[in-house]
């Protein structure tokens, strides 16, 4: 766990997310508390539980992005799940414990990738040796004698055979050294070799888990282990392609999966973050019937996981006591008070995210590290076209996006993608055939392309 201060965490989040300072401060404090907890003696460490967070705000204001960037900042295992996918036990749908299984899988992938990166240089050396073997394969061993007594009656001059073998080995060693030198100089990159790769279409069987009616695909290889050899196929590739394939294979062999699994589970239990989106959609309303019947049941199923319990996975039991849960919802129709009281109590920190205004939209277009306009500029640069936006044009794009959200569904910052895509549609289509190397997008160009996207409201007719 990196020891970022809350201020440093907020500064890092500011690089990608505009505004929403209250939400950023809440997650920064929650993350810092994890670091503080790690410094406390073991006697009291187990007693300190994470303070889960409930974010309240419209879609597209940055709820998911805050949680995702927070997890990425410290390298914590992270999954985003939608509460609407879950159903009460007895109904068709995913059971709530699957969120923990998903988190464990994500943690194992992260931990395994870390091990692979650590062993990659060693794997490159091993891969180079295998490439030499592919170019100059070792001679096949002689077939075993049919009659064991033949070994006593074979008439071969032993000394002569020893001399032949020594000469052959010396020549072979010299040849391999030459091949290694040529490989280092990059002279054999286009040579064709035949490598053996694992077939990526393993057989699987569909079963129903005992934990609800969730359908699971279980790989036969996982069930039977080494009893069933992995299916492989031969593939002809260049030496350059073979080097990457063989390096990946050798890196995988150097990974101790038992160690990976153990560390991944510890990482989940101590640093895991689960983002539960659309939690307002499972608020049961009084007198509900039909599809609403299992909503309160879903909340009651989620409750023990958020409170702290042990979930069985195929890698072993996983405790959820210290996983940080961040729930989010718009709460337009329902209210936070519509959640069952027990679940409300498990999310003691509540933050409201504000709707985005024109200035926020303008900042989102230009300021973040992954600014939307920068993305389009980089895309069109690949076609040799340089796009520049004037200040007036940027403000107009922000204004039109804001008005579209006001006049139709408010989808927050996602509206900007819709507007900018429409604005640059013609340029993106014609880019490969265009001769201009530089295009300036001004306010007139914005008006000409987006004039039909918003309705002009005549305010005079509302004035008496």
Automatic annotation (TrEMBL):
Describe the location of the Clp ATPase C-terminal domain by residue ranges.
Answer: 356-450
Q: What UniProt keywords are attached to this protein's entry?
A: ATP-binding, Chaperone, Cytoplasm, Hydrolase, Nucleotide-binding, Protease
Single GO MF annotation: ATP hydrolysis activity
Protein's recorded name: ATP-dependent protease ATPase subunit HslU
Q: Which residues cross the membrane?
A: none
PANTHER family, alphabetized: ATP-DEPENDENT CLP PROTEASE ATP-BINDING SUBUNIT CLPX-LIKE, MITOCHONDRIAL-RELATED (PTHR48102), ATP-DEPENDENT PROTEASE ATPASE SUBUNIT HSLU (PTHR48102:SF3)
**InterPro entries documented for this protein:** AAA+_ATPase, ATP-dep_Clp_protease_ClpX, ATPase_AAA_core, Clp_ATPase_C, HslU, P-loop_NTPase
Domain (AAA+ ATPase): residue spans on this chain: 49-353
Report any Pfam family annotated for this entry.
AAA
Q: Which gene encodes it?
A: hslU
Query: What's one GO-annotated cellular component?
Result: HslUV protease complex
SMART domains (UniProt xref): AAA (SM00382), ClpB_D2-small (SM01086)
UniProt-listed CDD domains? RecA-like_HslU
Native source species? Alkaliphilus pronyensis
A biological process from GO: proteolysis involved in protein catabolic process
This protein's superkingdom? Bacteria
Family recorded in the similarity comment: Belongs to the ClpX chaperone family. HslU subfamily.
């Amino acid at each position: 766990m990196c020891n970022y201060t809350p201020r440093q965490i907020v500064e890092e989040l500011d690089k990608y997310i505009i505004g929403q300072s209250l939400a950023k401060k809440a997650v920064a404090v929650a993350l810092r508390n994890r670091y503080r907890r790690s410094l406390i003696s073991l006697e009291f460490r187990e007693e300190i539980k994470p303070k889960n967070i409930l974010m309240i705000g419209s879609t597209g204001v940055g709820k998911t992005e805050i949680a995702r960037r927070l997890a990425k900042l410290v390298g914590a295992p992270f999954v985003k799940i939608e509460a609407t996918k879950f159903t009460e036990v007895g109904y068709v749908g995913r059971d709530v414990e699957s969120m923990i299984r998903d988190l464990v899988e994500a943690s194992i992938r992260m931990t395994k990738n870390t091990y692979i990166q650590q062993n990659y240089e060693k794997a490159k050396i091993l891969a180079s040796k295998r490439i030499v073997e592919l170019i100059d394969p070792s001679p096949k061993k002689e077939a075993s004698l049919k009659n064991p007594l033949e070994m006593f009656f074979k008439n071969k001059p032993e000394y002569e055979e020893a001399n032949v073998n020594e000469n052959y080995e010396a020549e072979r060693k010299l040849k391999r050294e030459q091949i290694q030198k040529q490989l280092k100089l990059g002279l054999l990159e286009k040579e064709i070799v035949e490598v053996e790769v694992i077939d990526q279409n393993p057989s699987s069987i569909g079963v129903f888990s005992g934990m609800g009616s969730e359908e699971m695909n279980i790989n036969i290889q996982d069930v039977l282990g080494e009893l069933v050899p992995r299916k492989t196929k031969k593939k002809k590739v260049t030496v350059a392609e073979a080097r990457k394939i063989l390096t990946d294979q050798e890196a995988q062999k150097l990974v101790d999966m038992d160690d990976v699994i153990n560390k991944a589970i510890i990482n989940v239990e101590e640093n895991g973050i689960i983002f539960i989106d659309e939690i307002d959609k499972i608020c049961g309303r009084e007198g509900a019937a039909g599809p609403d019947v299992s909503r309160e049941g879903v909340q009651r199923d989620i409750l023990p996981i958020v409170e702290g319990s042990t979930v069985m996975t195929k890698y072993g039991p996983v405790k959820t006591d210290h996983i940080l849960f961040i729930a989010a919802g718009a709460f337009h129709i329902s209210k936070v008070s519509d959640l069952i009281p027990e679940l409300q109590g498990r999310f003691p920190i509540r933050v409201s995210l504000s709707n985005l205004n024109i200035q926020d939209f303008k900042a989102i277009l230009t300021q973040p590290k992954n600014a939307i306009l920068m993305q389009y500029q980089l895309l069109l640069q690949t076609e040799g076209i340089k796009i520049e936006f004037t200040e007036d044009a940027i403000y107009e794009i922000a204004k039109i996006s804001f008005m579209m959200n006001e006049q139709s569904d408010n989808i927050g910052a996602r509206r900007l993608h819709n507007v900018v895509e429409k604005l640059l549609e013609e340029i993106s289509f014609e880019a490969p055939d265009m001769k201009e190397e530089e295009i300036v997008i001004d306010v007139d160009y914005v008006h000409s392309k987006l004039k039909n996207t918003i309705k002009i409201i005549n305010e005079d007719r509302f004035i008496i």
